[in-house]
Amino acid sequence: MPYRISRLGHVEIRSVDLDYYVNVLGLHLTGREGPTAYLKGWDERHAYSFSLTEAERPGMVRMAFRTVDPEDLDYYEKRFQTYSVPYDVIPEDYRRGRALRFQSPSGHTVELYYEMDYTGNLLPTVNPAPWPDGLKGIAPPRLDHTLVTAPDPATAIRFFQEVLEFRASEVLVQPDGTPIAAWLWQRPAPHDLAIVPGGAGGFHHAAFMIDTPEAIFRAADILARHHVRIDLGPGRHGITRGTTIYFFDPSGNRLETFGGYSAYQMDPDTQAITWTADRMTQGVSYYATELNESFLKVYT
Amino acid sequence: MPYRISRLGHVEIRSVDLDYYVNVLGLHLTGREGPTAYLKGWDERHAYSFSLTEAERPGMVRMAFRTVDPEDLDYYEKRFQTYSVPYDVIPEDYRRGRALRFQSPSGHTVELYYEMDYTGNLLPTVNPAPWPDGLKGIAPPRLDHTLVTAPDPATAIRFFQEVLEFRASEVLVQPDGTPIAAWLWQRPAPHDLAIVPGGAGGFHHAAFMIDTPEAIFRAADILARHHVRIDLGPGRHGITRGTTIYFFDPSGNRLETFGGYSAYQMDPDTQAITWTADRMTQGVSYYATELNESFLKVYT
Amino acid sequence: MPYRISRLGHVEIRSVDLDYYVNVLGLHLTGREGPTAYLKGWDERHAYSFSLTEAERPGMVRMAFRTVDPEDLDYYEKRFQTYSVPYDVIPEDYRRGRALRFQSPSGHTVELYYEMDYTGNLLPTVNPAPWPDGLKGIAPPRLDHTLVTAPDPATAIRFFQEVLEFRASEVLVQPDGTPIAAWLWQRPAPHDLAIVPGGAGGFHHAAFMIDTPEAIFRAADILARHHVRIDLGPGRHGITRGTTIYFFDPSGNRLETFGGYSAYQMDPDTQAITWTADRMTQGVSYYATELNESFLKVYT
Amino acid sequence: MPYRISRLGHVEIRSVDLDYYVNVLGLHLTGREGPTAYLKGWDERHAYSFSLTEAERPGMVRMAFRTVDPEDLDYYEKRFQTYSVPYDVIPEDYRRGRALRFQSPSGHTVELYYEMDYTGNLLPTVNPAPWPDGLKGIAPPRLDHTLVTAPDPATAIRFFQEVLEFRASEVLVQPDGTPIAAWLWQRPAPHDLAIVPGGAGGFHHAAFMIDTPEAIFRAADILARHHVRIDLGPGRHGITRGTTIYFFDPSGNRLETFGGYSAYQMDPDTQAITWTADRMTQGVSYYATELNESFLKVYT
Lengths: 300, 300, 300, 300
Known about the structure:
4 copies of one chain form a homotetramer. With about 300 residues, chain A is an alpha/beta fold. Chain A has 6 helices and 17 strands. Chain A has helices at about 20-25, 70-80, 155-160, 215-225, 280-285, 295; strands spanning about 5-15, 30-35, 35-40, 50-55, 60-65, 85-90, 100-105, 110-115, 145-150, 165-175, 180-185, 195, 205-210, 230-235, 245-250, 255-260, 275. Chain A has a 9-stranded mixed β-sheet with strand order 14-15-16-13-9-12-11-10-17. In chain A, strands 2-3-4-1-5-8-7-6 form an 8-stranded mixed β-sheet, with helices on one face. In chain A, strand 10 and strand 11 form a beta hairpin. The two termini of chain A are about 35 Å apart. At the A-B interface, strand 17 of A face strand 17 of B.
């Protein structure tokens, strides 16, 4: 099967903390409509990748994956029919074209889309400098992935693999081989989506790319300067090798800086790495010797 | 068009410097057959990605791209027929399955293949550490891209775009818009292949991934310790933003450490960045104020 | 007062873990005598800076500071007499000349010495490379500082300031201004010695220099690979700005990698930075929002 | 001899490029008087460390070293008398107290002083963050060292060693052992002052601290963005191991970012490292295989 999904394209969460996202995390506000603010990292080329909708409680509203081609929507529409997955066709949304919307077995609203306004990144398209001047806060270049919870992870994981053709890069398994959690990819990167045990529709975190060890310390310095609650890190995940800081927005949503540093590149036939349950602590936090309770218990 | 090529899979060059590749560059020798030694980086999962064939003069023997699916070979076979591109079917090669072989207008032997022995990287597949112990030399995790010369770059670039469906990430153009050089991708990374002006079949360099600023200095320290001739760097390309060291093997082939640091991620519709000829110096070497003559004149 | 102490020259602790110090921490064994093994970092030029004496329980045996000149020993001998500090003259010790030995009010055995065998670092003295090949483990270039406990920190701090002329770089104070802890220097670096509340003669940690963000992650990777218990970090201290990993040897002694990254340089009149007790958490661990209980409670 | 000089305290050069120093190099303007602008790095605690005096040609006006104690001025005054070195007592200067001024055999105006207004760095003195927000340009924390030329380097080097008690960290020598150049220290760091062959009173460069590999690339990116002419680097010196970028201000004065990364720490008896003339190229630029002609020929 060829690659038909380009990347995680959009995560919408419930949060009232626009100022925090702009000045501490350092995303760029690209538009507002009703209760929703649309944001993106400085190196993203379409209209937005992250949005905040004002609400009384935190959590995820939806996640959306961008296809490689417009006709990949037709391809997936047929798969939904084949697998009897109910879906809606959303003709258009804010600065975006047609999308397919469905509920995953994990209890999340998921969309597939291709068209979104192409607005370019923050650099000129002729003879650009390598990074823009005047960035604020942590200023990640882009959204990287999201991790969500599912009451029955094995079923949710199988759904994304079978219907949407995600491949697994890493799997955490019970002694009998049952998957507890999986890291799933479409881009040839460690993951676009991960699923761990927890409540239906639960939002564990969205991650933004921060790619060097020094940038991780800088990010942590900025979080600490603003008295942001850091949940884990700076550190490294055993699973995905990714370097990480987990932290919270003031509304209680967990975010992550995820580092490409030492990241692997996937091939279509790359075999998934297995983590056994007795090494879950190191899988989540490679430097820890005691389980970070928060990892499995706190989500929104 | 969906993504049908996973990556640059194999570069074969003429070199008698196996010891250098193993102990200074730090590739892993995975096999020998006749006059050819097969090598790979520590994080590559198939049998080899780079090979050295003993010969009296340096240069490239061939480059090969790995498809995403086995049936992508059929897809490209049809395209060769459509575009009247002569090709051979190579039933098998060293630890590799069926391949299509053709001559590009740039004068290079190019292959497409899918099957190669899957041997895993140097880490265990269960509960792995993030990197293997006991690496030697620079020890890049993997091959990244190659840059070759063409007598008529515009024609060669168009061939890879039209027939093989490469997309351009960056283009260096004459004032009238004619492409002088192009950086072409299939992975959603800055490039898998680049083409610059020069002789037919010319080999400018093959690049291996080195992904952090400190690792670049470490690589340069290792090169200097072994009295390797450094052509450029440590530095940064304006084009691709990639951090770089250009250096030579003792046979005279140019190699590169290419850094993912700050690298961008491509979308299918990402518009190519344009570099104008008057800024070619900064495009090649962002920190330079004078043209590095060697860049356009020295290749093998 | 001119600078009369060059640096913390030697820390001797009780530990049975020589293999750990050589293969995980990566110190170099330079000699053994009786129950004691003598070690140093690869960039240290005298015979040793750290020693391990076999014993049934962990903790510090002694710490020693090297003077700038031989005659500084006479200078300090007079000060001991002036301040009525009892001391012994130790004519010689393992590969070391005359020393003054005394008990500090913190309950530690402290020595001053000048002469020690000059054996050079691990690089040649003519046309050296920047770092030696073949290092093992974390391989810090040198010992940096030690932090000890005192039942009455204010008295101990005053003693080191008045009698030995240490200057304070940072002080943690009660609301009434009483010092709870102090970071004291002789080299123009953040500290050579720090004193915090705790038992008499208590050893909190000895720190070895690791100077870049990437080297910190590498050090943590190595610790995790060897299942070493990490107490804190990778992180940053608010106090001294130093980047840090706290971890334990198998005998239970705490060690640190301390990073010069962003470190300040002292002048003789540099005013001490004040940390207020309500910000002690950030002073110890700048990224933490909850006190690391272990910091004040665990020492040997 | 105890350490009596704390550091290189002040370099005054002829330059009309205040805007460049503030916005590209990122020094802080702390005062102006007549044709002179006074500047410092963000982590320096006294009134200034670098000054620019408007003039028709570039070059050094003077360099000044700060003593450890006020009475060290008396100590050096006696040494000047002992060695028959003519000197002036300068009762006061801009925000500075008494100084001794003399001509070195290299043809430079050199001063020793102790008193200068203590104004603090750009961080609060209570519970500070590790770095200030809102820095511009490269923003080095402090001045590090200067390198000057002398028609008879051996004589100039001997003068600084004998009269001012500098120690040599590294020496470049002729085959017969005659020093061609020397790197001299008072702080226990690689150097405060270096002397190479060239005209009387010549100014080779002043260096500002940039301490990590990533910060070096960031500095080079900023220089390139502003079209600053880079003379060498990013790279590493064999001599001092220091990482470096040499570049020019618009008036033609050479500046450097000098990296503490991997820097060594000196002891009073540390033996100087010797570089032989045949390895001068690697001593100056460890990654080069051909001599950078500019190093010995271009100075102001």
